[in-house]
Design brief:
Two copies of one chain form a homodimer. Chain A is α+β, with helices and mostly antiparallel strands. The first copy, chain A, folds into two domains: 150 residues, Jelly Rolls; 80 residues, Orthogonal Bundle (Arc Repressor Mutant, subunit A), CATH 1.10.10. Chain A contains nine helices and 13 strands. In chain A, the strands form three sheets. A five-stranded antiparallel beta sheet of chain A has the order 1-2-9-4-7. A four-stranded antiparallel beta sheet of chain A has the order 3-8-5-6. In chain A, strands 10-11-13-12 form a four-stranded antiparallel beta sheet. Chain A is globular. The N terminus and C terminus of chain A are likely disordered. The interface between A and B is large, with 47 and 47 residues. Chain A binds a DNA duplex through helix 8.
Chain lengths: 252, 252
Amino acid sequence: MTSENAHPPVSTTESGPSSEGRSALAEFPLFKGAPAATLDVIFRHANLRRCSADEEILSRDEQAGDVYFVLRGEVRIVNYSASGREVAYAIIPAGGYFGELSAIDGRPRSANVLAVEDCLLATLTPAAFKELLATDTDIAAKVMQKLVRIIRSADDRILDLATLSAYQRVYVEILRMKKPDPVRPNSWLIYPLPTQAQIAALASTTRETVARVLSQLNHDHIAERKSKTLYIRELSKLQALAAKSQPDGKMN
Amino acid sequence: MTSENAHPPVSTTESGPSSEGRSALAEFPLFKGAPAATLDVIFRHANLRRCSADEEILSRDEQAGDVYFVLRGEVRIVNYSASGREVAYAIIPAGGYFGELSAIDGRPRSANVLAVEDCLLATLTPAAFKELLATDTDIAAKVMQKLVRIIRSADDRILDLATLSAYQRVYVEILRMKKPDPVRPNSWLIYPLPTQAQIAALASTTRETVARVLSQLNHDHIAERKSKTLYIRELSKLQALAAKSQPDGKMN
DNA sequence: ATTCAGATGTGACGTAAATCACAAGAAAAA
DNA sequence: TTTTTCTTGTGATTTACGTCACATCTGAAT
């Protein structure tokens, strides 16, 4: 259930961004359209780091405080219970960033971050990140908005964990991952479908339970899996299943 | 299990703080030692609101965005599941504030806030709060730090919910609530002990389970209840119980 | 093709903990 | 005081779902 470090750490760190890195940073959502002064701070302090699939980018309790910007690839933020069970917090695609918590409050890392696939990352030291926040109030506001968004989704997650059944949490997770079908309009799918173990970590349940949910959905023609994509056939039925209040009796 | 609105809403709102309110605001942790310009913004825009025990101060999905500062009293932040189960997020004592999420991102309230006891609150409109953040970078930084703290504790909570047993979550909650005994040194207690139903909402379990945990702790001489206070006799044993990894088998 | 590791599907079983039900204390109201 | 309402303690019963076990499928490597 725990992920193994299949590869040796082959990440490389370069000092100062290449021209490739510079243009990627200038296009980065958080920095897009920023004034020259801001970009100057970024270019002067940013470093690049490459890392390969499944590599651990940073780990819980570490004292470092760099902020990471995902230029290419995708990372997963996870934690492990005492018994080794994996709990996933988020999957961050290119254009996102992580590690800002430690940069802001100086406390150790609260989670582990793993590369889902080969990644290109830019890093800023805590000092540089703080300088950035201080020089550009626009970016500071965006960062604050992002923190608020994180809180809201964490609160949602807590509510889900506290009140939904394991089956429902899987339904909810599937609904969260759905994207509009690029080909057929008004149709939803998940591609690439994560492994059942990864879905289980997001829904805080077991791989077997995810398997059972998926079979049941398939049997009821609500969702169908074809190799690496899951087609959602009956969105409304799935939403109904996710929302159905447990026959808990009185809804007072 | 759900709290009733026993009292009619008897809250009063005053326009502009009285001298009593002014001094309370000047002493408020977030504003303490702030420059005159900042206090000026606060005094000009703050209103006072009183509300009585068990009153609902604001509710989920509302579109308002005022920020509330607890000058006196205590409030609970909660949510309800579809089936009516209460999930508590936090208890905010005097000196704390809430409602900043909606003020920052303009989205609706994500939870309900109830007065635990009679309260005196100061409020700022979203516009005033934003002006405050813009004029005083020191306060902006403090607010950001608080957001980070909220995220960290929410993440902890998610980890607890996903990996601990119901009993363990109650142990953890008890440990969180403990305060040093004001009389005897090196001794810990909880006063006033919330009702079992409230503890259950924090630990996301049932009242009965909390009762069973408390009996067991009493039986093992780990914690003893005497009317409204819980004395923790054997802190280390309690911590051990909270941390014990389930006989989950292999810790890989 | 053949092999092999990882991912998936599904039954059987055990158990933590929710649910139900009620008695007995405590505190508040009369 | 007595009465009423809110809280607490504890048994009996039920069930969701985690655990174990193994068969089958899939896709990458040889």
